[in-house]
Amino acid sequence: MEHAEYVYTVGMTESDVDAHLRAGEHGVLGLADGDDAYATPISYHYDGEQFLLRVSDHDQEAEKTSYLETTDTATFVCYEAATDDSWSIHVRGPVRKREEDIDEATLNEWFQPFRLFDEAVENVEFTLYDLRMESVIGRKTSADSL
Fold it and tell me: How does pLDDT run across 12-21, given as a tens digit for each residue?
């Protein structure tokens, strides 16, 4: 790696991680079923106490739900990257379906608008999942690298 360009990264403070998670709205959720992996972009809500994932169910699509049921430890990644400045946060832990219903006004406050692709609005429903934050690791570009 003699000629490869690189920048150093350092661990983020707990307050930096907290601030980035509170300000963020989406990331990528990694799930597994045996030797098969599944990753999907997904919206989240973090308020310092709970880390919630909004999972859409539409048109009988069961793939996400199937992987959520078979994953013991999920990994959620949110990040921002540019050539000279970057950060990333990995949140790991079990994901469980939230049993408590949340009204639509609260969902709209907690989550960004849902992006529809080819689904009909009336065919989309949401389920909330709690991601228990057993491990949280944040890294950012070192100021010495800039």
Answer: 999 999 999 9
124-139 burial string, b = 16+ CB within 10 Å, else e? eeeebbbbeeeebebb
82 three-class SS: coil
CATH topology classification for 27-80+88-136 = Pnp Oxidase; Chain A (2.30.110)
Token output for 107? 């969902």
The stretches in the chain having pLDDT less than 70 are 1, 58-61, 119, 123, 144-146
Taking CA 50 as the corner, what is the angle to CA 64 and CA 119, rounded to the nearest 5 degrees? 30
**Distance, CA of 22 to CA of 116 (rounded, Å):** 24
Tokens in use for 124?
């989309």
Give the predicted TM-score (pTM) of the model: 0.87
